[in-house]
Design goal:
This protein has 71 residues and is α+β, with helices and mostly antiparallel strands. Helix 3 links the parallel strand 1 and strand 2 (52-55). The protein is globular, with a radius of gyration of 13 Å. It has helices spanning 2-8, 21-30, 40-47, 61-64; strands at residues 34-37, 52-55.
Length: 71
């Protein structure tokens, strides 16, 4: 899916298996918006106060509660 989106929208990037933790913080900090699943990048984005679109597939937001972050 990411490969197909990346071909159509070159501004979309994937850093899966391409960054260490420090680099991941730097990449997320440079983004205009973060689209991620319920994973470490989501929490990093929240800590950096970035706009986020979070996809809750396995755990569901009802179980975790709503974020107090403003969008």
């Amino acid at each position: 899916l990411l490969a197909a989106l990346g071909t159509r929208y070159p501004e979309i990037i994937s850093v899966v298996d391409r960054t260490d933790l420090r680099e991941l913080f730097e990449v997320i900090n440079s983004l205009d918006i973060l689209v991620t699943t319920d994973s470490s990048p989501l929490h990093i984005g929240l800590a950096l106060e970035k706009p986020i679109v979070a996809l809750f597939v396995a755990t569901g937001s009802a179980r975790l509660g709503q974020s107090t972050a403003t969008v």
